[in-house]
TrEMBL record:
Gene3D superfamilies: NADP-dependent oxidoreductase domain (3.20.20.100). Residues 15-344 form the NADP-dependent oxidoreductase domain. The keyword Disulfide bond does not apply. InterPro entries: AKR_Detox_Biosynth, NAD(P)_OxRdtase_dom_sf, NADP_OxRdtase_dom. Pfam families: Aldo_ket_red. This is Aldo/keto reductase. It comes from Comamonas terrae. Keywords: Oxidoreductase.
Length: 353
């Protein structure tokens, strides 16, 4: 895998990123160590985490993922120097008071969260520090429409950038990024950074997969013109695009109960749990098989080869899953298959937005 640049930065990362949100909930520390060892062995040198992980978020496991990664670094001399490490500061509380007190995300919150992450990760610097979701009100995590009546913003973007700039100046963060952002948000972060000489965001981490291509509805142009890279998360739509739920829906008897969407009702209540999302996924999965591919191969090859994507974030619960996802690298989708994929999207649009 040839390293890719993130935005206008000096960061060069693998085009596949290891997502770690399962560590500490579905994946115990020993298996997490094996997964990270294998990822690095196979050329994946880009790891992503967040202060609120494990997922689904619980007070008992908040910060557990970063702690596991920190212990892995401590037990593997030289590993930290080989890995580009990304983490995230949580936005305003979304029913998780143990993550963020109050309704906002202040400059002090950003600094305190970063320092907490550094301690858990047992490192002196985070290579890419991202805002997990916007401080202002935006439609995200299953919401469809922007409603100005819901606005409760307390910390202007300029103030957020100033806090992130201090972390960069102190050597605690190398570069900054966003997540779950909108075209307005990306543009405003870039505009204010350029106007005031503050750090420029290099990436945004947003959902992108066959059942949610909403990134292509204007945000792709924004990021392309501004030089902001996409880190695509949930390429397998929380398991819907693996085929494991083609016979039984996640909550039904017979469905694989170890999957997150099957085990946790909180996950099913979001975008991935919509009946329309499952119905669309089953159509894509059937299309993959008709073309001699597994659903996983087609879904990942789609993300891996899209011009919009700099690096695809894969989350796994075993080394076997990791190898399956990495083995899809290099696969090309025939033009007629791409046309068939687009034809399905024309009918169903983005049911997991």
């Amino acid at each position: 895998m040839t390293p890719v640049a993130l935005g206008h930065s000096d960061l060069r990362v693998s085009p596949i990123c290891l997502g770690t949100m399962t560590f500490g909930e579905q994946v115990d520390e020993a298996e997490a160590f094996r997964i990270m060892d294998r990822a690095l062995e196979r050329g994946v040198d880009f790891f992503d985490t967040a202060e609120m992980y494990s997922v689904p978020a619980r007070e008992a496991t908040c910060g557990a993922t970063e702690t596991i990664i920190g212990r892995w670094f401590a037990s593997r001399p030289g590993a930290r120097q080989k890995v580009t490490l990304a983490s995230k500061v949580a936005g305003p509380s979304r029913g998780m008071p143990w993550v963020r007190a109050g309704q906002g995300m202040t400059a002090a919150d950003i600094v305190a969260s970063c320092e907490g992450s550094l301690k858990r990760l047992q490192t002196e610097v985070i290579d890419l520090y991202q805002i997990h979701w916007p401080e202002r009100h935006v439609p995200a995590f299953g919401a469809l429409y922007y409603d100005p009546r819901q606005e409760r913003s307390q910390t202007p973007i300029h103030e957020q950038l100033q806090a992130l700039a201090r972390l960069v100046e102190q050597g605690k963060v190398r570069h900054i990024g966003l997540s779950n952002e909108t075209p307005y948000g990306v543009h405003e972060f870039v505009r204010l950074a350029e106007q005031h000489g503050l750090p420029r965001v290099v990436s945004t981490q947003n959902p992108y997969c066959l059942v949610n291509r909403s990134y292509e509805n204007a945000l792709d142009e924004t990021c392309h013109r501004l030089g902001v890279s996409l880190l695509a998360y949930s390429p397998l739509a929380f398991g819907l695009l693996t085929g494991k739920f083609d016979q039984h829906a996640p909550a039904e008897p017979g469905a694989p109960q170890q999957a997150r969407i099957a085990r946790y009702e909180s996950v099913r209540r979001q975008r991935w749990g919509r009946p329309e999302a499952l119905a669309a996924a089953r159509r894509y999965n059937r299309l993959a098989r008709e073309h001699g591919l597994t659903p996983v191969q087609m879904a990942l090859a789609f993300c891996y080869t899209q011009w919009q994507v700099a690096s695809t974030i894969i989350g796994v619960t075993s080394v076997a899953q990791l190898d399956e996802d990495l083995d899809a690298w290099g696969m090309q989708l025939a033009p007629e298959l791409r046309a068939a994929i687009d034809a399905i999207r024309w009918e169903v649009r983005d049911p997991a937005v």
